[in-house]
Amino acid sequence: MRVFSELDRWGPGSEQDTLKALSMVPFEPQFILEIGCGKGVATTVLATHTSAHIVAVDNDEPALARLRERTREAGLSDRIETACHSMQELPFNAASFDVIWSEGSAYIICVAEAFEAWRPLLKDIEHELGIYRNHLGEFGYQMFVLQKS
Ligand SMILES: C[S@@+](CC[C@H](N)C(=O)[O-])C[C@H]1O[C@@H](n2cnc3c(N)ncnc32)[C@H](O)[C@@H]1O
Question: Does the beta carbon of 11 sit less than 6 angstroms from any atom of ligand 1?
Fold first, then answer.
């Protein structure tokens, strides 16, 4: 990550991509879990365009510190919590979130395994998966998991 340390965005995509994916969520999310949030480029967009409480997870504490700084500057920090954890060992109770958001990060543990491991954290066990792929294809896609509405 040292090569990318000066950059705020650590994956492909853009604010427009995040907004396009968010527009596909058919309800107003109240509890979002963002996994592999990096420095919070998507977190900031999600917090700005929803009223949700967001838990942002990454295993890189300096990235989370930058996330806290940027969301504080944007006046959004009261709805954002950071958690330094491995995406493979998430310490949350089952059925805690209504959307799981992960941009350019699920591939780290294999997308299928990520879906399987993260599903129980959703509030409703009957749910749909939604995937929005940007122009960069397989490794550039953004993913969100939805509670069935
Ligand atoms: C490609 S970057 C994407 C970051 C951010 N979503 C963005 O688009 O800027 C992948 C992120 O996953 C984090 N990461 C890598 N392995 C992880 C793991 N095992 N558990 C939690 N986070 C991890 C990295 O620190 C990094 O922030």
Answer: yes
- Measured in Å, how far apart are the chain's first and last C-alpha atoms? 38
pLDDT level of residue 76 (50, 70, 90 thresholds)? very high
Ligand 1 site, residue 98, Cβ cutoff 6 A = no
Q: Give the CA count within 13 Å in the CB-facing half-sphere of 71.
A: 29
Residue 91 C-alpha to ligand 1 middle, in angstroms? 17
Q: Cα(38) to centroid of ligand 1, in Å?
A: 5
Q: How many CA atoms lie within 13 A of 1 on its CB side?
A: 13
13-20, long-range: CB within 8 Å, 24+ apart, which pairs?
Answer: 13/42, 13/103, 13/104, 13/134, 13/136, 13/140, 13/142, 14/134, 15/41, 15/45, 17/103, 17/132, 17/134, 17/142, 18/42, 18/45, 18/46, 18/103, 18/142, 19/45, 19/49, 20/132
Task: Quick: pLDDT tens for 111-122.
Answer: 788 888 988 898
**Ordered structural domains, the chain, with CATH:** 13-19+26-147 (3.40.50.150)
Report the alpha-carbon distance of residue 51 to residue 8 in Å, rounded. Answer: 23
